[in-house]
What does this fold into?
Amino acid sequence: MPRLQQSQLRYFLGAITPSSWKDVLRKAYDFQLIGNDVHHWLFGGMTAVVTEGFTLDAETEGDLALALHGVGVVAQKLIPHDALDRALADIADDVRLQQEFISVHNEPELLENFTFSSEPGQSKTQYMTYDAGIALGITACQTAGNFTGREFYDNLVKANFTGVSGRVNFHPLTGTRLDDAFEFEIINLRISPQKSSPAELAFDANASVLVDFPISGGPGRVTSLDNPFLYYGNTTIPPLVLPPITQDLNLIPTAILILGYVLMAIVMLLSLGCALWVHRRSDSYVVRAAQPYFLFQLCLGTFIMACTIIPLSFQEDLPGLDHACQAIPWCACIGFCTAMSALFSKSHRINQLMNSGTTFRRVRLDPQDVMRPFYIMLLINLILLTIWSGSPYHFTWHREPVHNYDEFGRSVESIGYCYPGGGNGMYLIFLVPLVLVNVLVLVLATFQTYKAKDLPTEFSETRYLALSMLSMSETFILGATTIVAVMDNPTGLFLVVSILISIVCLSILLPMFVPKYHQRNKSEREMRESIQSFNARRSALASATDRASLIASMPVRGSTNVRGSTTLRGSTSGVDKAPLSNDSTPDFFESFADEGKGTDTF
It folds into this structure.
C-alpha cells in the first residue's frame, strides 16, 4: 500500500480472492487509497458483494461499507437457463433424487459429505461446472478405444459447442476456456439508504456497462446501460486519471515587471520633461540654436521606443497576446527611426547651412526641406510593418513545453514567447529589410554628426553624440549576444531588452539635453562671442591653407648651406598684400541663431 500511495495513481484494478478482500480493503482505506472521491477501484472475483442480500455490520464494518461505496465490480454476465435452473431446483428439493444421484457413482462413499446447494440455478459456477462436465463427456465419446491422457487432451481442446454458460471452446496450447463468447458487466456498488438499517448496511448493485468480445477477435464492444455509474461522491464525473499537473509557466516575476516599468517610466518622463523644457525655453538663444523642431521629434522617438516595454511585458492571464506580439516591432522600429532621423535631419540641416556660408550664397532653408529622408525612411518602415502584420508570418504568442517531465511523462515546464508564424524563416523577408533601413538611418545620422564635428556645441553636440553613438554600438553588440543567450528565459529576455531600450533612449536624450541645460543661462553676448571665436578659427585656418597653397605654387630660388638647409628667395607680396581677415568669413551662425524660429536665410 505505501508503494501504491507513492505512485500517485488514481485508478486501480484489483483481482482479490473472496477470503482476503476485507483485509485488502481495510488496508487500502487506512492509506486513503479507497473510500474517497480521488481514487477509484474496479474489482474482479468479488461477485459475493453484488449478490442480492449482501450486507455489512454497521458498527464493525462501517469502514468496509465506505470503501465499497462507488466501486465497480467486473463480473461475467449470467444469462439464465430455465431448463437447467428447474432441474437443479428439483434435485435440491427431492431427497430421493439426491440419493439416486449419489448411488449411480462407482464410488458413492466419496460423496457422503456432499452438500447440495440450497439456492440452485442462476449461478455462474453451477453453469460453468455443468458445461465442463458436458465437455468431458463429449470428448470421451469422441475419443475411440482406450485413449491416453494426451489423446483425450488433444480432443478436448477441439471441443466447440454452445452450453448453458455460453460458447464452450478452448485455447489449443493452454487448454484454457476462451472468453470470446463471454459478456462482462461492470456493476456499480453503492450504499442504499432505503435498504439499510441502523444495524446493517445494504447496497444497490446495478450493471452500468456491458463489454463483450467478438468470436472473430479484435477489440471488445463497450455498451453503456440505462443505469449511470455513480462514483464515491454520488456524481457521474469520474476522478482524474492522474494527479493534477503543476506546470511551471516561467512567467516574468512581478518584481522584474516593476523594474521594466520603472525603466520605461524614466525614459517616458525624461522625454516629456525634455519636450516641455524645449517648449518653455523656445525663445532662449540656446534652444533656438539647437533647432526645437528636431528636439521635439527626438523626444517623440524615444517616447515611442520606450513604449515597446509594454507589449514585451504581456504574458498569460492578459488578453490580446497576439496583438501585443505584433506591437513590439511597430514601437521599436517607428521609435528608433523617428529618433535617429531627428539626429540626421538636425545635423544635415546645419551642415547645409555651413556649406552655403562658405560659398557666400544666400539660402532659405526650412526644416521641411531636410525632412524628406525621414519621411522616406518612415514610409518604408510603415509599409513593411503593415504588410508583415497582415501576412501569416507576423509574430504570435506561442507556449512551448520544456524538456522537463514528471513520472507520468507529462511536461511540467513551459515557456511563452512571441514567434513568427508560417515557419521556414519567411518572416526574414520583412525583418531583414526593417533592420537594414533602420541601420541605414543610424549610419546616416552618424555621418552627418561627424561632418559637423567642428561646429560650436551650441549648434552641434558632436562630442556628446560621439559618446552616444559609441554607447549605442556597444549596447547593440553586447545586447544582441545577451539576447541570444537568454532567448529561452522569458524573465531574462524581458530584463535584457528593457535595459537595452532604456540605454539606447538615454544615450540619445542625455547627450542632447544635458549640455543645453548647463548653457541655459548663457547670455546672448556670450553665445555670440563663442560663435565669433569659431568664425575666427575657421578664418585663420582658411588663411593658413591659402598661404600654404600660394607658397607651394611659387618658383623657388635658393642655395643650400653647409648644414643642408635651404634658403628660399622669392616674392611673397601676394601673400602680404592679401591678408585674410577674421571678418572675411560671414557670421552665418549668428544669423542662424537670430533666425532660429524655423527658417534660415543667408
Observations:
- The chain is about 50% helix and 10% strand.
